[in-house]
Specification:
Shape: globular
Number of strands: 4
Number of helices: 14
Order of helices and strands: EEHEHHEHHHHHHHHHHH
Helix content: 40-55%
Radius of gyration: 19 Å
Strand content: under 5%
Length: 326
Amino acid sequence: MHPDSEIVQGGLVLPVDASDVYGKTVVEAGTDVTPAVLADVAAAGRFASTCRLNLKGSRLRKDMDELIGQGPYPELFPPGRIDDVLRIYDDLRVLPVLFEEFEFMRTRDIYVYEHVLRTAALTASMAIDLYGKDRAPLIGYTALTHDIGMVRLPDDVLKQDIGVDRRKRKVLYGHTIVGYVLLTYYLGSAQFGNCRVALEHHERGNGVGYPRGIKLRDQIIELIGTADAFDALLSARPFRKEPFELRAALDTLWNEAKLGVLNSVAVKLLIGYSRSRYEAFDAGRVIVAEETRRRAPAENNYINWADYQHYECGLTGQAAGAKKQG
C-alpha cells in the first residue's frame, strides 16, 4: 500500500459482533477498536502459521471463471486478459480459513459472493495495466477479501433497502470495521494490505466516504474502490431493482471522478476497456465525452451517504471531536 495511507486505529466502533467463520466472537459489538484491541486480536489468531492452499481447482476459482463470462464482463477485458487474470488466481495461495470464509459468504448472500469475485477479477486486470504483472497478484488478493465483513450484517441491512434509517446506516458502515478486525485476526497483523483495503475501500478522495470520512490518498485502494463501485452499479441491489446500463455506469463514475470522489485514472481505464478497440493504456490519450448517453435505472433509491455526518456512524472520543470541528 502507498506509504501515505492513513490508518487511524481508534474511534472505530463495531456495530455488530465480529465473529469468525466458526462462530467465535473475536470482538463484541460496541467495542472501540483501538490499537490495544487490534494488538490483542492479532495475537489471538492462530491461523497465520498454517499452510496455504492454491485457489486452482476450487469452487471459488471456477465460479470466477463463470461470472466474468456473463453480462457485460466478457467485453471489459482486453484480448487474452481473462486468461491472465484467471492464472493469477490459480496461483494464489491463501489460508484454509479463507476458503471457509468464501464458502460461508456464498451461502450467506450470493450477491456479495459474486460481487467479490467480479470485483477481484476486474481489479487484477486493472492492476496489470497500471502496475504490471508482477504486482497484480498481491493487489488482486487484497481485492478478493475486501467485503468479508458484509456477510456479518443482519438481513434487514444486508438484504433490504435501508432507506434513511440511521441505525441501519451505522450498521452498514460497520462492515468495513468488521472486515478489518477479522482479517487482522486471521492474518496475525493489521498491517497487511488486505486489512487496510477492507477498512478503507469505501473511503473517497474528497473525504465523502466511510467509515471515517478521510481523504483517501492510496491509489491502490482507490483502484479497488473504483472496481467495487463499478460492479455494484452493474448489479441489481435492494434499493435498485435493475442494474445500470454499462454506459450509464461509466457516466456515473466519470462524474464522480470529476468531483474528486474516485480516481480519474482508474475510471479512464474502465472507459478504455469499454471501447471496441483496446490499446495499451495511456490516461492522457483517453478522451471522455461529457454528455450523458444512457439513462440510470428509473427506480433507484440509493442514498448519498455523504449527506450525513460520519461521526454519527461510529466515531468516538478524539476522532469524533476532530470530525465535528472539521
